């Protein structure tokens, strides 16, 4: 594929993705400012040019890069700067990896990001049901996500996605309270 078509295709994907993150994110009550800043590091040279090199069009360029090189510099750069990725919330690699519960706003932004990624790459074929299936499959891979966060992601897929958007912000407020109480208890368990 011609270099210029890859550049335009990639730019288009970023913009369409940001549009859908904004769409789902607003339904989840995330601030406009936070949503506008979403994934801006994709415009940094280290992320941008690697993504052009491994451009796929209908899926992320990160997995093919990891396949070719064993790792991805773009992903290393991205996950370290964007707290809406659960990989950001891990530590202590010398002693088996500690999982940290994601702050509530980061969790909501991740859910918007996941739905938006599905919607961007699958287009009209995407649905909340297909997104639920994706999550069920991902869970079987045992991802490095704190159990408290997993519990709330499950609730999102069980409850939110079956309900019209008008209810989302109400649910969000309830969810925020219980989730933050869980995290508080977790953080003070050594007191
Ligand atoms: Zn991101």
Q: What would your notes on this structure say?
A:
By secondary structure, the protein is mainly α. It has a domain at 86-187. Helix content is 64%, strand content 2%. The chain contains nine helices and two strands. The chain has helices at residues 3-27, 32-37, 45-53, 62-69, 73-81, 104-122, 128-140, 147-159, 168-187; strands at residues 90-91, 98-99. It has a two-stranded antiparallel ribbon. Helix 1 crosses helix 6 (104-122) and helix 3 (45-53) crosses helix 5 (73-81). The radius of gyration is 17 Å and the shape is globular. The termini are far apart. The mean pLDDT is 92. It binds zinc ion.
TL;DR of this structure?
The protein has 191 residues and is an all-alpha fold.
Strand order of the largest sheet: 1-2
Please tell me what the overall shape is: globular
Tally the beta strands.
Answer: 2
What's the average pLDDT? 92
Contiguous runs where pLDDT drops below 50 for at least 5 residues: none
Radius of gyration: 17 Å
Strand content: under 5%
What is the end-to-end distance? Answer: 59 Å
Largest β sheet strand count, sense and barrel closure: 2 strands, antiparallel
| Helix residue percentage | 55-70%
Q: What structural class do the secondary elements suggest?
A: mainly alpha
Q: What's the SSE pattern?
A: HHHHHEEHHHH
Q: Which molecules are bound besides the chains?
A: zinc ion
Number of helices: 9
